[in-house]
Amino acid sequence: MSIISVRDLVVEYGGRRVLDGLNLEVEPGETMVLLGGSGAGKSTLLRNLLGLERPQSGSVVIKGVDITCCSPAELKRVRRSIGVSFQSAALFNSLTVEDNVALALREHTSLAPSIIQLDVWMKLAAVGLEDSGKLYPQELSGGMRKRASVARALALDPEILVFDEPSAGLDPIVAAELDELILFSKRVFQMTVVVVTHELASAFRIADRIAMLYNGTFLAVGTKDEIRVSQNPHIRQFLDRVPDTVATSHVVESFMEKYLRSSEVTP
Amino acid sequence: MAKFTEAVESVGRATLDRLDYVGGLSIGFWSAVRALPTTLPFMGNRYRWKASIVQMLQIGVEAVPMVGLMAMCCGFILALQGASELRRVGAMSLVIPLVAIGFTREVGPLLTAIAVSGRSGAAISAEIGTMMVTEEIDTLKVMAFDPIEFVVAPKLLAGLITIPCLTAVCNVCGIFAGWIFMFVSTRLGLKLYVHNVLTSLVLRDVVSGLVKSVAFAVIIVLVGCLEGFSVRGGPEAVGRSTTAAVVKSTFLVIVADVVFTAFFYLTGKH
């Protein structure tokens, strides 16, 4: 049985359809990468997967609970089994790294402070930040902030770990380190991982399956190899990095010509 | 005809927008009131109580010097203006009840509310707006926390406790400034001044001022929070929400003051 099941998901903003009848099944223990270009609808899909938005129609079933129509208490229960690392890391700036990681443990469990301390240290050590617990988020580099957000996402030992653009804004070495961290976390903590990204190298390194999103619909959902050999023109364009439009001096010239002509006519 | 239709449309749209805003404030108020028990000591969540203490320091304690100084200036001005007219009819002694009653009923609560609105209303809006922009509010939600309980309730509790206290401080400072004026102009002793203040005030004056200050606290905190939560986009939206929080809360405080003053006037003994 799928741990995440998206059925006929439709999302519209001001009459514009952003997600158009999406269907997706994520199996327990797999790493599903949602791949797509800018404006494809990745972030919207992610927000619907996390219950941060209500769709126009369709359902998002996580661990057997349809989060689009469940009660707030049920939604909270489902969310406790999901760890999320946002694109901006979204650490609480008023708390130290240690307190960021400990927050959910202190509030959602009845563990003794010494056990929480041990657990926090373990999670920080897992992401390589065991010496940075006392620092505040603003004292960390971009890569360290992302790692800290992973440690916080791991705090409650979630069944599902979600990453929003994990490599965005990081240099290739730190991005590769983060990919390895995702693989390590999945291996050690035995979780289902959902990653939203547009980074090809990262996607093909960490994915078990890839769902290719284009203009609010899935062009293909399959293994890395299936996606790699796909002949769909949009997938090929994305994988081969072929631009849609190319800026040329000819375009600028014709624009200037039109502008000057219209200026001559207008008094 | 088309212009008339347009005008009616724009008036209707503006009315609906205002109603929408008031509806948002009402929903926010009830949600915050429902979450308020979690911030109380012993029976609530200790982390929310700690957050409330921090907010009390920021909204209340840190504002004492500013509110005190503003109150002393206003008390002195009120005494000066009153004396300039009352002296002509030989009623200098009425300056004391003017300052005492004026401050406890009206100037103290209003002055405190305007000071806190500019200081803490703006800070609340900027803080929550920044949390919206940096996805911290989304993070709270996906971590199974209720943002109203986590962010709004501690601020509301802090406002409900500290703003009436600040109002009391404001009243004392304003009335004290009135004595400075009376001492300089008539060599009136402090003991006699205090005696005159106490005889001119009734409990109703103090209570009506404090009731107003509680209402002002609710307005300032909720408008600040609502403006913060409505931030969409980038840092410039945070700036806009901060400005809107100060303008709207100051306006609503004055409107509420009119309503409360009218209520106390109509229900008072004539």
Task: Summarize the helices and strands and which ones pair or pack.
The complex is a heterodimer of chains A (about 270) and B (about 270).
Chain A: E1 4-13, E2 16-26, E3 31-36, H1 42-49, E4 57-62, E5 65-66, H2 72-79, E6 82-85, H3 97-108, H4 113-126, H5 142-154, E7 160-164, H6 172-189, E8 192-197, H7 200-206, E9 209-214, E10 217-223, H8 224-228, H9 233-239, H10 249-265
Chain B: H1 2-35, H2 46-59, H3 64-86, H4 95-133, H5 136-142, H6 147-186, H7 190-200, H8 203-229, H9 235-267
Helix pairs in contact in B: 1-6, 1-8, 2-6, 3-4, 3-6, 4-6, 4-7, 4-8, 4-9, 6-7, 6-8, 8-9
Describe the protein's architecture and organization.
The complex is a heterodimer of chains A (267) and B (270). Chain A is α/β, with parallel strands linked by helices and 267 residues long. Chain A has helices at 42-49, 72-79, 97-108, 113-126, 142-154, 172-189, 200-206, 224-228, 233-239, 249-265; strands at 4-13, 16-26, 31-36, 57-62, 65-66, 82-85, 160-164, 192-197, 209-214, 217-223. Chain A has a six-stranded mixed beta sheet, with helices on both faces. In chain A, a hairpin with a 2-residue loop joins β4 (57-62) and β5. Chain A is globular. The model of chain A has no long low-confidence stretch (mean pLDDT 89). Chain B is 84% helix and 0% strand. Chain B is globular. Chain B has 270 residues and is mainly α. The termini of chain B are far apart. At the A-B interface, α2 and α3 of A face α5 of B.
